[in-house]
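hey team, just a heads up i'm posting the complex here instead of the shared drive bc the drive is being weird again. everything in one block, sequence lines first with there labels, then the predicted structure for the whole assembly after. its two chains so it's a bit long, scroll down
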Amino acid sequence: MRRVLSVIAGLLIAGLAWEGYKAVGNPEGTVLFGVRVLPRADDLSMPHLATIADRLGAPELAGGRPVWQVVLDACVFTLGITAAGFVAGALIGLVLAVAMQRFRIVERGLLPYVILSQTVPLVALAPLIAGWGGVVMPPWATVAVIAAYLAFFPVAVGMLRGLQSPSASGVELMRSYAAGWWRTLVKLRFPAALPYLFPALRLAGAAAVVGAVVGEISTGTRGGIGRLIIEYSREATSDPAKVYTAMLGAALLGLLVAAAVSLLEVPLMRHRRHVEVVTL
Amino acid sequence: MTAVVVDNVSKIFNQGRPDEVTALAEIDLSIQNGEFVSLIGPSGCGKSTLLRLIADLITPTTGTVTVADRPAATARKEQEYGIAFQQAGLFEWRTVRKNVELPLELRGVSRSERKAKAEEMLELVGLADFAGHYPGQLSGGMQQRVAIARALAVQPPLLLMDEPFGALDEMTRERLQSELLGICATTGTSTVFVTHSISEAVFLSDRVVVMSARPGRITAAIDIKIPSRDEAGRQAPAYFEKITEVRKALRS
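-- predicted structure starts here --
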């Protein structure tokens, strides 16, 4: 109950901040030394929340389906791509982390490239991957590849740190039990890595959403929320509220992915919830 | 039959590098079956290193270690010993009972047998009521008792203990000392016990091995015979004589 209330309170505060800024902010934006430090507060840049809500209910085009349905459909489409990219990226990240933990030489050889991979501009990479669409994989899968490309990184790095986190005494203990590498991984390293894994998965989830949205735009894939943002933003001058409905959709997507990771975390991190220390 | 034979063992860390350290030099030690031997000496005398060599957690630079008439590596693979460290080193994601079950799990013991054994061991260290707690909920002393229960769970023929009671209060320490002696006597377990405490070493041991630092060497081995290892034993003149003897050996 308290959580629900705090969520509602959070939404209210965000809404009040938006409308409050609109009320007091300079419609032309605040310009300091030739640089705009605060955004324009006019109806074109920041439509009223009520206008956005109205727009959600109104038809997309004259006589068409209401916008909320279109946005929701696009969300479902992009969610599928995000999920595929997230799962693939997380698995690749896990495998890389385990390989890097197992073989020092792999860590030394691979880690610089793992880091380098994230400095390559996505816009340079996307056309290359888009070229695979329809040839090696369906077009939607190329977007998932881009999402996975962004998602694997935090998992690989976070999980490697986690797998290396057990103390020397824990490792010695497993050695004293004559447990080999695999059993040490399963019984010690993997559970010890979970507190590192979940924050990494959250980052990976956010990265997968960004990857899917940007991937849709740069590969020109139709049907998703990324494409919708581009389409609606072209109408921003005549219909400013429309593009915000698509942005709301993208935000909803991010929340869904974060919630999915949290659901995964609950059963696996049970021991973290008992915190009261007994001293006898 | 001998439980442990350490034959002319030296251990040099970082050999051939500027930070080379000779931790142990020319160590000879043999421990009979059922014998309780304490290693005592100043910090850095290599007593923990010696224990780790017996456990085959590190390998000697020269010399050989034999455990239960087998090379130490074989003995480790056959899980001939149980070990308890200075830090409890419990797995925080496992309940207390699951922690004690860990070595049994790795041996392939059945679920019901594991549970029964773990509960028996927890009873022994006085933590039966905390089987379902997580280590993070227990105080340091309680965690250490769980670690001891874990080391005992497989009922190994050899028990290696690295200052296991160091973090405990005097009352718990004395109670656990008596418990440990009881377990060793009934099961015939041989024990190598590293400690800083002279009185603890004398009370527990059949033999106290005194070591000196840099390089770690055995300087004396004192056989202990006190009339009984209980409250009366702690007050016997023989007990105090031996404490004095060990103290003198440490000084020299």
